[in-house]
Specification:
heterotrimer; A alpha/beta (271); B alpha/beta (273); C mainly alpha (329); A: 271 residues; alpha/beta; Rossmann fold; B: 273 residues; 11 helices; 10 strands
Amino acid sequence: MNELLAVQNLTVTLPTTRGPVDVVKDVSFTVGRDETVGIVGESGSGKSMTSLAIMGLLPRGAMTKGSIRLDGAELLHRTDREMRRIRGEQASMIFQDPLSSLNPYYTVGLQIEEMYRAHRGGSRKAARKAVVEALRQVGIPEPQERAGHYPHQFSGGQRQRIMIAMALVCSPALLIADEPTTALDVTVQAQILRLLADLQRQTHTGMVFITHDLAVIGSIATRVLVMCEGQQVEYGTAEQVFSAPRHAYTRRLLESIPRITDDLPADEVVL
Amino acid sequence: MSDVLLSARGLTKRFTTRGPYGRRKEFTAVDGVSFDVRPGETLAVVGESGSGKSTSARIVAKLMDPSAGTLEFEGEDVTRATGARLARYRADVQVVFQDPFSSLNPRHTVERILMAPLDYQGIAPTGGRRAHTKELMERVGLNPDHAQRYPAQFSGGQAQRIGIARALAVNPKLVICDEAVSALDVSVQAQVIDLLLRLQRESGFSYLFIAHDLAVVRRMAQRVAVMSNGKIVEQGPCRQVFDAPGDPYTRTLLAAIPRINPEWDRRRRAAAG
Amino acid sequence: MARYLAGRIAGLVLILFTVCLFTYLIFFKLSPDPALLICGKTCTPERVTEIRTVLGIDKPFLTQFWDFLSGLIAGRDYGSGANSVHCPAPCLGYSFQTSQSVWEMVVDRLPVSATVAIGAAVLWLLAGITAGLLSAVKEGTWWDRSVMNLALGGASIPNYVLALALQYVLVVKLRILPFPSSVTFTDDPVLWFQSYLMPWIVLATGYACLYARLTRANVIDTLAENFMRTARSKGLSPVLTMRRHALRPALTPVTTIFGMDFAALLGGALITETVFGLDGVGKMAADSIAKNDQPVIMAVTLLAAFFVVVGNVLVDLLYTGLDPRVRIR
């Protein structure tokens, strides 16, 4: 069986002042090794809550139903101690805003090192070596020296590279990327997407890629899950979803993305 | 009247910053930028963060003065305009900002927000405040019954429509859109773009459209100026810049845009009929 | 760095000069004639004139002020000829009441004020930060709510009320503590500790309550930061997550506020020292104000200003060490 992650009938309920609300309703999908599954949706669609549920990082008071299996092992309803061993070691996560996702008070080297040592133990020296190697792998020049720098001393793209280095330092089987390129410029976005694809080829990490940008999904994912207001409206291979969408919402979403390759604009507008 | 509405020549903006220990650093955000906006057309200025596109927009909006260069509006030098001339310029040139919620006063009703530009100009709206508000709201596709509501009671897309209606309240000749659709969800973004295009068709004003998203620009503009490090690296008709970019930076920028397989797109369109 | 320091020190001197000038001006314009005060009951007009000449207060304002400043830096002589008294630098003059050198009085009393301030600071940091931390971690529980209500109440009790209440309960009723007296540590450590305990508690209470609320707010803000989510997603232990990732960002602003509060306290805790009869700078200030003892008032004002201004510079320097984002690159 080549299945790495299997999410089945996942429902997430959050307590609010107006009573419990289902932010994720009955969502099912699988991620194979070496595969990238894109979850796409607009704000409030529940795509981020799905990823937090996999990591066991839902806000306090959240309730879950269904099943999330990673490598055959159930992740829901685990103790925090058990989940801590999984986080970072088997499943890692990167976030939208790399600057605020890194602690401004510590060097990037230390922030990667502490993660390595939390899971692998060992000497600081060994951990440092792994840190430098991880930074080199994501294309940070002079990694030995740069490990001693603070997050604010890096550019936006470099910070996201550092987050990726951190996420992959323990060679997890699954990487969840939650809008990793949304805050970045388009040229930097292209570099990060290429880096993720290259790393995936080398490390055979399964990836869940969450974004609101269909064009990004189209360029990176093999399978796509479309979410709207907590519900799964469409799920299939990228080709299926983009060339023959079944659901009206997906069709509307696809029609609303402005395309650079369109041949309609200027003349039609002038009238 | 000339065939140029707004003409910027050699706009330059230098900032002096102070480091933590009082060390002075100077950097040039906008460096000798020149462009023309013609009546009724849309000129887009694109670039990545730090390219100087928003600073340029702020200079044109007269929210800051340039360190060097001139700004002409309808053939008249407005670079150092003050008093009545500046007030007139402010009526002719309106701005729509990126974040509608932070650019609309949360304690004012929609009516008060929409009438503020008129009050500033000392113009009494024809047909009364209520009727004018209603008309503006209808033009941007908002329910005119909601004139007494506050910005927080609207969604992001609706709030941006209020921002657009406010810009239209004084019949401007130029509307500056500073990343006006960047913060919106893609389906809402498409609607707001359609609205902006329709309003221009109806009223014939010009847009100075600042954006980082080239696909949006392609949909909105006839001409485009690509900025990088404070300079315009390439400028021309959209078709020419997008299809045959002359500058290496423009080519990198275009190549970086994620694309959906055009074959998938074609099949989807074919199936949709 | 050197240029920055030089700039800050120049600013410091300028502020102290301004404080001197205004304090001096107020006394020059408003206070009754010090010569009459010193002269006492059996006073003749000749004697008053003589005293004025010795003190130099018959001269115009700017000359007087100049004498004061140069005395501060280089020392000065009062009177002339055989009767003159030399006042070595830093000369703050002589008390009108006791004729003691004001500088010696300050040097004498500063240790008492410092003891009060240091002891209280240790207490309020321990109590305030611990309470604030626990409240933040247990946000919304009954523990949090009761501690925060207590802190609000504690911060609003005036010092003198708390001082008198404590004295009444601990000294008069329960007789656990002796009445405070100015003993030195080397004379009798136990009595020393007992004497200072109440002032410490009184002074620490208000600060502890403020610091508890401040710490709680900062920790809660920090816990909501994105980097805390990252720390959790890395599988770090809760202890490490809290100790390394939450505490340093949360407590850095507390450190800077502490620096200022502590510096202000070194200038004397007026009410507390007076109530407990401790001979510190604060009590000296209270006494001198009551008796219109101009040189002493000048001295305590300057001292307080000096500590606050120096404290400010130190806090800024400390901050550049604590927060890497404001370091010089």
